[in-house]
Write a structure and sequence with these properties.
There is one protein chain. This protein has a two-stranded antiparallel ribbon with strand order 1-2. The chain is elongated, with a radius of gyration of 20 Å. It is mainly α and 158 residues long. The two termini are 37 Å apart. The chain has two domains: 55 residues; 89 residues, no CATH class. It is built from nine helices and two strands. Helix 4 runs parallel beside helix 7, helix 5 packs parallel to helix 8 and helix 7 packs antiparallel against helix 8.
Amino acid sequence: METHVKNGDPDSEDIDRVNVMYDALLDHLLIPNSKKEELISTQSIEKKKQMLKMHSQLFEPGASSWGDKDNMLLTNILKSKIPDLSSLSRLRVVLASANREFMTSFLDNGGVSALLKTIESRIDKSPLSELDVAVLYEILSCCKAVMNNQVTQVHSFS
C-alpha cells in the first residue's frame, strides 16, 4: 500500500482509504460493531495498514468464497456411506471461522440441509457403529459452528 506524505503527515485521502479498507476487513472478519468502532478509533494508521497487509489475501477475488470444491465436499458427505472424518473435521474448522461471504454461500448452497440429511440417515441406522458416532459428532459440531456464527444468526432472520 502506497502512502502519500506531505510535510511528514500522511495524506488525508490515504488515511480515509485505509480506514475504509480496515472497516471492510473488520466486517469481513465478523468483528462485532462495538469492538469494530473501538478498533477503528484507537488503532494507529500503521497498525491498520499492518492488519490490512496480514489479511490481504481476503481481498483477492474468490479467495474466501464458496467454490466447486466445497460443493463436491457437501455432495460427498450426502452420498457416501461413510463420509471422510478428516473432511468433516476440516469443514467444522472452516465453518467455525467462516467469514460473511463463505457462510452466506454455504447457507445458499444448501449446506445446512446436507448436514441435517446426513444426520437423519445416520441416526436411523441400528445399531450405530463407532464410526457412525464419530461421523455424527463431527456433523453436529459443524451444525454448532454454523449456529454460533454471527452471519447465520442474521441470515436466518432475514
